[in-house]
Structures are given as C-alpha cells and as structure tokens.
Amino acid sequence: MNKLSQSTEYAPVVLFAYNRINVLKKTIEALSKNLEIEKTDLLIFSDGPKNDNDKDKVNEVREYINSLNKFSKNITYHEHKTNIGLAESIIFGITEVSKQYKNFIVLEDDLVTSKYFLKYMNESLAKYETNSKVWSINGMGINKNIVEFSNSYPYNTYFTYRSSSHGWGSWSNKWSQAIWENNQIKREIFKFNNNRNFLKGGRDLSEILIQQLNKKNDSWWIKWNYTISKNKGVCLAPKYSYVSAQVDSDGTHIRVYMKILDNDLSQSQQDISFPDSEDVNPEIAKKLSSIFVSKYASNVKTPKIFSKNKNIFIAYLEYMEFIIKYIEAKYTIKSKSHKIKGFIKYQLGRK
Exposed, middle or buried by CB within 10 Å (0-12, 13-18, 19+), for 253? Predict the structure, then answer.
C-alpha cells in the first residue's frame, strides 16, 4: 500500500474485500457514483485464500481490483498472502490507515451506498471531529416500519448508544483507544456500572460479547462497541439510510438483521440536519433498545434501563443475567439455570 497523508477534509474510504466478485462490483459501482468520490482516497484490503479451492475466487477479486479505472482521487490496495479473517483484516486495515489519516470511512464488500453517502460521512466527521463524546458515525438506519419518528422530531439524524458496522466512520484518535484484549474486557465488564452502560445499546450486545470472550465468535465490532460504551460515547445515525446491504446470494452481510435495518436508499437526503446536542433522545433510545433484546427477555417492550424511575433491583437483575449467560457459555451449562432465567425473564418483562 502506498504511503499517503491526508491533506483535505475528505476522509478516505477503506474497503475490505475477500472472494465475492459479484457483490464487490456492485459496491464499487455505487461508490463510483458518490458526489465526492473524485476527491476521496480509496484504500482496498484484500484478504487471502483459506485453501486451494478458494484461490481462484480471491485471484478473480484481485484481478478486478487491479483493473479498476481511476474514479477516485487515489486507489491503493493491500493483499494479504494468507487468510486472516474479517475481524483481523478490519483491525489491521483501519490501524494502518489511522497512521496516515485523521479520520476514515469503512465499507465491506457487500454494501451499496447512496450517492450522498460520502457527503453525509464527511460533513458528520468534520462537525464532530473535536467532540470527545461522539465516537462513531453510522451510515445505516433502522427500518422505518419498526421505529417511527415523531412528526415533531426536526432532524434527519439522531444520537444512539449503538455503533454500526454497516458503512461507518470514525477518527484515528478514537480508534487508537479501542480495546482488543479479552482479558482487559473481562476485568472491566463485570463492574456493575460498565455493564449497565454497555447494555444501553441493546441486551443482545451481552450475548455477542459473551460469545466473543469465550471464543465462540470473532467479532471486532462488539469490542469497538464496548470501547465506546466504556468511554460513555455516543454515535450519530441517519434517520434515512445511506447504506444498504446486498440481498443477492453472494451477499451474506447481516442477513439475520436484514428486516430490522433500513435498506431503502430512495429517501437518503443530501442536506443533513444535526441535533442541537449530543444527548441521546430517551424516546428514540427506548424504541431502538427494545428491538435488540436477548432471548431471555424477548417480551420486553420498554427496557427498564430507560425507565424514568430507575429501579436498582431491575438493574441488578440485568447484571445477573449477564453473569449467568457468561458462565453458561464458558462451562456449557444448560439445564441447571432454567429457574433462575425464568425468574429474570419474568421480572425484566414486567411493565
């Protein structure tokens, strides 16, 4: 990868590719139509093959990348000789880019962008560059049929406790604080206040983190989200999506959450209006958090952590739920804890 240095207000796009030529072509095509792409550096990281059967697909992707006609300010790329996996590839790539740029925009190879995507990202990154509270800019919104905004809400962006990995951006000084060591997270997440703050983004976060800590998944995003919550940070999100996940057979990105997320780019807006403060709107937070709930509290309509009358008993139940799930995952305990989980589910689901 050529050494570059940021000299304009336009953040570079960091694109991660592997072996899916069809979806990558659609991602590149959409990106090439963005209004500010000709002023933007594009850095592509290509992961290596897992085995001999994978080589042809990876080589096809790399031949395509090398054949690209210049449509951005610069196009550079890095090829991994072996397969290091998506998580390590993203951590490596963004860390390398952060050495050269003050901010960055991240895409994976099955995400299609609105032509206003870069404009939204650059304006947002510029506006909150020196704001210590804002940690990430989300490019994808929530399905408008699930979360309806009040007619009185005057902005087309809002703040949330939950970061997104589906087309996003941040700053190098924030990324440098990311916590990747499992042992450090284990030491911190079992502190009551850290745990409670972490759950503001949704109770499903605890399950994802537990699986990560017990080596059941390889999610870089959950650690980034934990870093943000530990620092009491917030993320800017669009009311109308600037990013869509491809739904064809080669696009596997976030298939489970497809119905929750907003994949409609027809309403993405060129003009951006930002909230007056970086405070998370409590009504929006309630709606968002109620979408992402755990299997132990799937009937929760209004998470207790956002209730006006804070109930310390409920908060400790949420804390206990996390500990039980962690122990279960670590020691594969299943049948012995049904009664405890049933009690917690009943209490968390009470109005």
Answer: middle
H helix intervals, 140-180: 172-175
Residue type, 20: R
Could you tell me if 143 and 237 are in contact, meaning their C-beta atoms sit under 8 angstroms apart?
Answer: no
List Cβ<8 Å contacts ≥24 apart for 91-94: 91/178, 91/180, 91/220, 92/45, 93/14, 93/16, 93/43, 93/45, 94/14, 94/175
With beta carbons less than 8 A apart as the criterion, state whether 118 and 36 touch. yes
What six digits make up the tokens of 122?
């650059």
User: Strands 103-108 and 234-238: what pairing?
Assistant: unpaired
pLDDT of residue 296: 35
- In total, the chain counts a number of residues equal to 351
Strand bridging mode 103-108 / 74-79: unpaired
Mean pLDDT value of segment 129-156: 91
**Structure tokens of 223?**
């650690």
If 0-12 CB within 10 Å is exposed, 13-18 middle and 19+ buried, where does residue 182 land? Answer: middle
DSSP assignment of 167-201 = SEEEEHHHHTT----HHHHHHHHTSHHHHHHHGGG
| Contact between 140 and 235 (Cβ < 8 Å) | no
pTM comes to 0.84
Contact assessment for residue 169 and residue 235, using Cβ atoms and an 8 Å cutoff: no
Strand, helix or coil at 205?
helix
Pairwise pLDDT comparison (255 vs 232), residue with the higher score:
232
pLDDT digits 0-9 by tens, 67-118: 999 999 999 999 999 999 999 999 999 999 999 999 999 999 999 999 999 9
Paired residues of 138 in beta bridges: 168
Q: What φ, ψ does residue 30 adopt, rounded to 5°?
A: -65, -40
The residue to which tokens 């804002």 are assigned: 134
Which residues does 171 contact at the CB level (< 8 Å), separation at least 6?
A: 102, 103, 104, 125, 129
At 206, list the tokens: 């605890």
Average per-residue pLDDT in the chain? Answer: 85
Give the tens place of pLDDT for each residue, 286-311.
788 777 764 433 444 444 444 444 55
Phi, then psi, of 150 in degrees rounded to 5: -60, 145
